[in-house]
């Protein structure tokens, strides 16, 4: 992957028919995708339909404001696949396959991973749904199948800065896109793919997940190397995550 991606080079030479506003598209860079400043919506159409053709509008001008977008990550995935000739999972395996042997980006369980069923309410078995398991080529924003152990190993590698130069690691952890205060319990900004938040005197690097009944959080403290991974299979999992965050405050 080294040398394939320039964070500040426009993606526009890559054809992406679902974006009709070519003038706005010409402004989008990988940095805007990773910091959620593309102006694109979270989703346009069914996120799990890899053949959808719904046009993607722009909600704000690219580069001007925080705008969380899964569609933008799918755009970046398609760009990288075009540049390398490899699928998302094929790009994932050489870099993280040994660190995360039970994980995949192609909809298949591996190693010791087992499917989970998630619930809106533990008291209502009928409210459950199965984990989405279907071979797919997309899913950059939602398609990682993993275990708590694999994700913790990945988080530890990120904490150590493995595979990154000191300059790149500093850039990844540099706050670049402020998140509106109404959507986060503490001051926070996006770095490159990670949320950088301040809880009292502590700087915490984190990434959360919300796919319906599946909720998750991975977080670590760069100053100490301590961290945790929480994967839940209930809609109230967010309450547990919130309680852990509350307890982490000094």
Largest sheet: 6 strands, antiparallel
Ranges with pLDDT <50 over ≥5 residues?
none
What's the helix count? Answer: 7
Total strands: the figure is 8
User: Into which percent range does the helicity of residues fall?
Assistant: 25-40%
Structural class: alpha+beta
What does this structure look like?
With 250 residues, the chain is of the alpha+beta class. Among the domains are: 22-84, no CATH class; 148-248, no CATH class. The protein is 26% helix and 16% strand. The chain contains seven helices and eight strands, in the order ααααββααββββββα. It has helices at 22-25, 30-34, 70-84, 88-96, 148-160, 166-172, 237-248, and strands at 117-119, 128-130, 177-178, 188-190, 195-199, 202-211, 214-220, 227-232. A six-stranded antiparallel β-sheet has the order 3-4-5-6-7-8, sandwiched between helices. It has a two-stranded antiparallel sheet with strand order 1-2. Strand 4 (188-190) and strand 5 (195-199) form a beta hairpin. The longest helix is centred in the N-terminal third of the chain and has 15 residues, at 70-84. The protein is globular and about 50 Å long. The mean pLDDT is 92.
Give the tags.
single chain; 250 residues; alpha+beta; 6-stranded antiparallel sheet; two-stranded antiparallel sheet; 16% strand; Beta-lactam/transpept-like; Beta-lactamase family protein; AmpC-like; Beta-lactam-related
Give the SSE map.
Layout: H1 22-25, H2 30-34, H3 70-84, H4 88-96, E1 117-119, E2 128-130, H5 148-160, H6 166-172, E3 177-178, E4 188-190, E5 195-199, E6 202-211, E7 214-220, E8 227-232, H7 237-248
Antiparallel strand pairs: 1-2, 3-4, 4-5, 5-6, 6-7, 7-8
């Amino acid at each position: 992957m080294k040398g394939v991606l320039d964070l500040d080079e426009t993606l526009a030479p890559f054809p992406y028919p679902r974006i009709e506003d070519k003038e706005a598209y010409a402004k989008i860079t990988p940095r805007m995708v990773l910091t959620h400043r593309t102006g694109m919506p979270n989703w346009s159409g069914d996120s799990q339909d890899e053949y959808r053709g719904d046009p993607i509008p722009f909600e704000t001008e690219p580069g001007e404001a925080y705008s969380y977008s899964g569609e933008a990550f799918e755009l970046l995935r398609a760009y990288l696949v075009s540049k390398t000739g490899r699928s998302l999972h094929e790009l994932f395996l050489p870099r993280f396959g040994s660190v995360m042997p039970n994980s995949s980006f192609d909809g298949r369980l591996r190693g010791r991973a087992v499917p989970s069923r998630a619930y809106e309410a533990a008291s209502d078995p009928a409210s459950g749904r199965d984990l989405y398991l279907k071979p797919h080529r997309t899913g950059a924003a939602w398609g990682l199948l993993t275990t708590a152990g694999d994700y913790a190993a990945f988080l530890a590698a990120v904490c150590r800065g493995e595979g990154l130069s000191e300059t790149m690691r500093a850039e990844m952890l540099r706050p670049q896109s402020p998140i509106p205060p109404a959507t986060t319990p503490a001051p926070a900004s996006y770095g490159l793919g990670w949320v950088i938040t301040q809880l009292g005197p502590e700087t915490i690097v984190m990434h959360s997940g919300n796919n319906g009944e599946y909720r998750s959080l991975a977080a670590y403290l760069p100053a100490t190397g301590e961290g945790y991974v929480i994967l839940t299979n209930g809609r109230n999992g967010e309450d547990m995550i919130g309680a852990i965050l509350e307890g982490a405050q000094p």
